[in-house]
Design brief:
- It is built from nine helices and six strands.
Length: about 300
């Protein structure tokens, strides 16, 4: 892992760190928007309007992902000892230091989806057909985001008992190490010399490459065979929920919350899968006579 790529010197001896997490989030967003605009042109949609929507999606996704994380981990933000964080420009509330991690994808997705629904309705743009254009970019952007999680050492996995060639150890500056050190039994998670964690499942990479696989599946298989608006969106909702549930089985950051034996992420995955199944079932119904064409052309441009 590499939380900070390099530091930019500032006057007075201070320096401005370039965080791997923030850089990869930015790359994922830019690549995702570029691909979505290309698809919008191909489908006869307005790419400039889509770029405008992307800005509001970015803002709402950051807010939603932060709010979700804060609801599950309030002690990290509101205890007297952790309320403020040092930066090259002085001390600021920890809630603003998003480059240090602490963003939950599901919160960002829900915030972005609500904002997109509002924006598309306001501009009289069809939700499902534009969601089909955008959702493969979400999968690819999430691929870059999870690589950033690996760089920051957040969203870590459980201890990999036994020999696991791809297991990862995280150093003291990682969120994984710091969270384990705060637990009542840190010896179960940290190496005896306390220079790194024990070998952990790299769940960030499990999910990253799972999302990359979903992106390729959507653009190479689902979208070319699209038969109705909302099909690409529904496919991703259900497939990602299954992927996330599988990855959650190897997660070790129980600080995110456990309810009735399941993690908060698993409960959210159940809701996301149900939403995908509902979209699929409702969107594939033939439009009532006189309601206008609803289905995409055969072959799904």
């Amino acid at each position: 892992m590499l939380p900070v790529l390099f530091r930019i010197p500032l006057p007075g001896g201070a320096s401005l760190p370039l965080h791997t997490y923030g850089l990869l989030i930015a790359i994922g967003f830019m690549v995702g928007i570029w691909l979505a605009q290309r698809e919008a042109v191909r489908r006869g949609q307005d790419p400039r309007r889509l770029a405008d929507l992307a800005f509001w999606i970015l803002v709402s996704a950051l807010v939603g992902s932060r709010v979700y994380y804060m609801l599950v981990n309030p002690g990290e933000f509101f205890s007297p000892a952790r309320f403020l964080v040092e930066t090259p420009f002085g001390r600021i509330p920890r809630v603003l230091a998003i480059w240090q991690g602490g963003l939950v994808f599901y919160g960002g997705f829900i915030g972005a989806a609500l904002t997109a629904a509002w924006y598309l309705r306001r501009h009289r743009m069809g939700f499902l057909e534009h969601a089909d254009t955008l959702i493969p970019s979400v999968a690819l952007g999430h691929f870059f985001g999870r690589l950033g999680c690996f760089g920051a050492g957040c969203c870590w996995g459980d201890v990999a008992h036994g020999h696991l060639p791809w297991a990862a150890r995280f150093p003291p500056e990682s969120l994984a190490f710091q969270s384990f050190a705060d637990r009542p039994d840190p010896g179960q998670y940290l190496a005896p010399d306390r220079l790194a964690t024990l070998p952990l499942h790299p769940t960030q990479l499990y999910e990253a490459f799972g999302e990359l696989g979903l992106f390729l599946l959507l653009v190479l298989v689902v979208r070319p065979r699209k038969r109705f608006h909302g099909q690409v969106l529904a496919a991703w909702l259900m497939l990602y929920a299954v992927l996330r549930t599988g990855v959650e089985a190897f997660r070790g950051d129980v600080e995110r919350g456990v309810i009735l034996g399941l993690g908060v992420g698993q409960w959210t995955s159940i809701a996301i899968f149900a939403a995908g199944a509902t979209v699929w079932a409702r969107a594939r119904r033939p439009a009532p006579a006189g309601a206008g064409p609803a289905a995409a052309p055969a072959g799904g441009r």
